[in-house]
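Continuing the batch. This is chain 6 of the set; chains 1 through 5 are on the previous pages. Same settings as before, nothing changed between runs. Recording input and output for traceability.
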Amino acid sequence: MTLEELKQAAVSCGLKGFVGAQLADWLYAKRATSWDRMVNISKAAKEALAAKYDLGISAPVGSSISSDGTKKYLFEVHPAGKTGTNPANKTEKEPALNQQGNDLVKEKPEYVESVMIPEEDRKTLCVSSQAGCKMGCKFCMTGRHGFHGQLDAADILNQFLSIDEAGELTNTVFMGMGEPLDNYDAVSRAIEVLTAPWGFAWSPKRITVSTIGVLPTLKRYLDEQRCHLAVSLHNPFPEERLQMMPAQKAWDIKQVLDLIRQYDFSGQRRVSFEYTMFKGFNDDKRHADALIRLLRGLECRVNLIRFHKIPDFPYDCATDAAMEAFRDRLNNHQVLCTIRSSRGEDILAACGMLAGQHTSSD
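Output for chain 6:
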């Protein structure tokens, strides 16, 4: 809930509106996971709230830790229908403090994953926005998992609030399961909580949203948000991109770039392009030069990503030498390019490997 909605919730229980501000402080600033922790709210007030509302915070049902310190969490969710519209039993107006009774009729549970990536000076959460994904990228395990419903803002924020590192997170990337701009209303509500003074009070610079290039909501995102943008590009040739990414047929990468060029990325907001490297498919000089031409004049960064092998997929990752030559060619032609470090591969937490698999060992 937003601050105003929390105030309305308090009033609906016969309490003063300022109790809503206290709730926001406990939920978002202090990361309270139970009513008992809210010590400056009277017992009677908490009982009145608890009789009507649930905090909407649930612990992960599993976790695993990589040899490099990356930690993957598994969450059980009850997502909205596959059409993207919420069923009658679940409203987008009450996501963070859910009205009790909303969960009496639930679809079967699904599982989503998020990944906490520790570094020396930061802890980044790679967060999921959907159960599965509609986009069907052939090199992505999430896409192979299929689409199983939309997460609401509470499902998204719960990934921040219920993990061991909840109070230590410094950044987030919407690069987990799902296409964030295919669930933009819930993602934008979560961003509001993350950036509002009454919420997490994060700078938008601490948030990056990744997209394949969903044009209708990409424009909304660029108009409404100040967070960073990451575009999954992976091939500069539309016909070759289509072989790997069916969404290219609906949203051509050249149209996506035409839209992006209408916005200013010379200041604090950045745009980057994700480019997964496949041996013998998109890793040669021809592709590097085409990418240079495609991005010429745009203030941006290209992140080269090592492909992590998945079953029944014909390509391997490009060699280190090919990736370094590709990077150097882009940099020599004034396109800033880096090779992203691979994290969490041993626990299936690296790029493209999340599939929300719940096993008895979790």
